[in-house]
Amino acid sequence: MGERENDILLWEHFRQGRKDALAELFCKYFAELFKYGCKFSDDTEMLKDTIQELFLDLWHQKAPPPVNSIKAYLIKALKYKLLKVVAKAKKTGSLDGQLNTSFEISHESFLISSEEDKRKVLQLIAALEKLPNRQREIIYLKYYLNLSYDEICDIMQIQYQVARNQISQAIKTLKQIVGEGLLVWALLQVRLA
After folding, report:
1. How far is CA 164 from the centre of its chain?
2. pTM for the predicted model, two decimal places
3. Class of residue 131 by CB neighbours under 10 A (exposed 0-12, middle 13-18, buried 19+)
């Protein structure tokens, strides 16, 4: 049984009332959700709390919906919870740390094994920062989290062709800025990480 099928089975067990299945999903996805949340905020305590609240909300749902991709569902839910935190913080001015709606990709996303690799990563990060936020986010979802286009569409609330066009445009822009060789190197690094 593959990872996706195992996740769906765990989700179905959770929907049938087995809370241990949700706990297993929490343990499995906490680190990945935390890494994703760090793209929006450097307030680690707020991120941990928000992820825990997400799972508590799921725990208290009377009828959790069936889902095709647990990973995409959790990422989407976390994104919307974080956006609610932003809206609330703007009203009250009570947010510790930095929370922004721009999407950031840092050097930690890459394997760095030499000074030359470090130079390449810095060059690539500078190029990624020139992309619009949505293109940075879609690159992260597709190549760092290895999500399908359908999962990306669900998370970002966009049409399938829009997702493909955004990826295509982002890659075209990155090729123009850093060249094809560096872009291929970066994609290989992401796959090995």
Report:
1. 17
2. 0.66
3. buried
Comparing CA positions, the residue from 127, 152, 158, 126 lying closest to residue 137 is 152
Cα gap 128→174, rounded to integer Å: 7
Q: Is residue 18 predicted with pLDDT exceeding 90? A: no
Q: Which residues on adjacent β-strands are paired with residue 99?
A: 41
pLDDT band at residue 87, thresholds of 50, 70 and 90?
Answer: confident
Strands (E), 4-149: none
Tell me the C-alpha distance between 27 and 122, whole Å. 32
What is the C-alpha radius of gyration for the chain, rounded to an integer number of angstroms? Answer: 18
Provide the 3-class DSSP secondary structure of residue 101. coil
pLDDT, tens digit (0-9, with 9 covering 90-100), for 147-164 = 999 999 999 999 999 999
